[in-house]
Amino acid sequence: MRAVTRWRYWPEPELHRRIWSLAWPMMLSNITVPLLGLVDTAVIGHLPSPHYLGAVAVASMIFSILYWTFGFLRMGTTGLVAQASGRDDGTAVRSLLAQSLILATVIGTLIIVLRTPITEIALTLMDPAPNVLGEAREYAAIRAFGAPAMLCSYALIGWFVGNENTRVPLILLTSSNLLNMLLDLLFVYGFGMHANGVALASVIAEWFSLLLGLWFCRRLLAQMPGEWLLEPLRRLQAYSAMIRVNRYLFIRTVTLLLTFAFFTAQGARQGTDILSANAVLLNFLILISNALDGFAHATEALSGRTLGQGKLDRFYRTVAGAGIWSLVSALLLTLVFGIAGNGIISLLTGIEAVREQAAIYLPWLVALPLIGIWSFLLDGVFIGTTQVRAMQNTMLFSVFAVFLPVWWFSQPLANHGLWLAFVSFFAARGISGGWVYWRISRQQGWQPS
After folding, report:
1. C-alpha distances in Å from residue 223, one per residue of 90, 219, 220
2. Alpha helices in 223-271 (DSSP H)
3. Which of 30-44, 129-143, 278-292 has the weakest average pLDDT?
4. Fewest CB within 10 angstroms: 133, 223, 253, 384, which?
């Protein structure tokens, strides 16, 4: 087999257009998520007492972490569906949709059943002020009823991306977040509700998103050959591929969450100003992920489809094309952060002490796009090709063999040492992922699941 870096695998113009057509809707979709958080904060933040804002911040964090933990429902569905779609197997595409929705419904229902112990354990760990606890419990008790809808929406978004349709996820996220914002205003200012109103608005918007997604799903299936089979839904063995893929993604996601939690905790140990400055700088990471995740999603869909079709030449061209545009985006982000980074910090906080601290550590964020680009891109490749065990292993290696040792030995550098460990973590993910990609390519091991 020829080396995968030769000009033979240079992407043609049509492929560049296809990558962009899939990437830009996901970029816009990603922007709506932090925007909703800002609106929630603004609405509840104008109530007379600050404890309402504290309750929403604490309780919504519980569900953000919970839902992020089960993000494998989107990622795992995308790769399997993309490969089935590449084989023109409409029956498998339908079965995968049903299986992922069933799995999401079961997990979401368990969250409702276990909502009280989950909430109490989380609140005990967070230890908020006594006047925040009551509102936070009420928020969580309501918000839990949106869990099945939210997790099913994850599965639907993964299914649409696997079918190379990223415009429907854009419609779903934009419309549901807009509805959420309007309901926030209605319930809080119109009906005089507090944290419970924000929770109710989220639940209604989550169910609306699911119903709208199912409607779009029905339209897409009407144009797709294939049939519904009950047998793959009855036998546990038929779920083996999805369970295997999701198992590895679950471990990978939990490890990533623990890494961010560790980073935050170590910043907190250095004082409030450092904690706040790191929180401000992590918003730069959100901008990076919003840009680079768009190309990662395109890579998931296109690499899975080409692998399902057995077109390895086009698979390598897809990875090359997504890599080119990811690199261009990373260069632009580095340029923007280098020129306007301090201005962005000033927009995010008006506290002078926090601004000064954030400016000291800004160079780490200027370098991060070019260092982290490869981890985002290769995640897209591994999800689309369902090489998720490799994805899990590179994450474990990057955390336990790089991030934690670098942090340990760089503690004398204080927060600079913490950022060095964090940036090294992204570098390790890219390098180890690149090695896995090279090894599989050399062994001609890219095979559909």
Report:
1. 10, 7, 6
2. 231-234, 240-268
3. 30-44
4. 223
